[in-house]
Amino acid sequence: MKENSIAKLSLLCSLIGMVLIYFGSARKSSLTPISQIDKDFVGLKVKISGQVLDLAKHAEGHLFLKVKDSSDGVISVPIFAKINSKLEKRIELLDNIQIKGIVEEYNGELEVLPEKAESIQVIHSTPFEISKINKKMTGELVKIQGTITRKKSVGKGSLLLKIKKNNGEIKVYIPSNVSNSGNLASLHEGQLIRASGLIQTYKKELELKVEDPYNLKVVGAPDD
Question: What is the span of the domain harbouring residue 152?
Fold first, then answer.
C-alpha cells in the first residue's frame, strides 16, 4: 500500500515536471525571430526580444528604436510618448528589451508597435569599463559611466567632455546638432553621467561620440 502511494506520488511529480517543461518551452518558443518577420506578418501580434542598437527621441517624447536579436534580424520599434511616459525603466542604447506588439508597415519599412507600457520589458546593460576601451573597438557601440572631469566648447557649438572612472579616462564628443537640441547646458564637472555612442578616433585619440541627447544622462554624484 505504501509502495503504491510512493509510486503514484512519483508519477504525479513526473507529470507535473513534464507540464512545467512543456509550458516553459512553449513560453520560450513564443518569441518570434526578427529575421523571420516579413510582410505576411503585418497586422499580427508578435513577441520579440533583442538589443537596442539605435535610439532617438523625438521632441514630442516619442522614442524610435532599432532592435536586433540573435537571429541577426533588425526591426524598428516606435514607442509613442503616451506609452513612453508610463515605462517603469528608461530605455537606453544596448539595453536588452522584450516587446509584444503588432507588426505594421510604415513608409515601406516593417515595425513592431507596442500597444501599452506593460508590453515592454527592459533589462539595463552594464556600462563598459572605460579602462578596457581600445582601438580595436573603433566603430562599436559602447555604454560608459563615469565622472565629468572636464567640459569645454569646441568648434561651432560642440561639446567635449572628459569622463573618468577608476583608472580609465575617455573623451565624449557631443556634436553641435546634438548639444543644441538637448538641455546639455546643465552639464558640469563633477557630475556622474552615463553616455552611449560610437567609439571613434580623432587625432589618434579614442573618443565616444554621442548622436542623440537622450543617450546622455546625469545619474548622480561623483562615482569613486
Answer: 130-220
In a domain, 1, yes or no: no
Q: 100 and 141 share a domain?
A: no
> Are 157 and 194 part of one and the same domain?
yes
C-alpha cell at 213: 541627447
- 49-104 tens-digit pLDDT: 999 999 999 889 899 999 999 999 999 999 999 999 999 999 999 999 999 999 99
Under 8 Å CB-to-CB from 130, ≥6 apart: which residues?
Answer: 144, 146, 163, 164, 165, 166, 168, 169, 170
- Dihedral angle, C-alpha 82, 84, 89, 91, nearest 10 °: 180
Q: How many domains does the chain have?
A: 2
pLDDT tens digits for range 166-209 = 999 999 999 998 888 766 778 899 999 999 999 999 999 999 99
Q: Is residue 14 part of a domain?
A: no
Provide the Cα torsion 46, 47, 52, 55; round to 10°: 50
Residue showing cell 572612472? 165
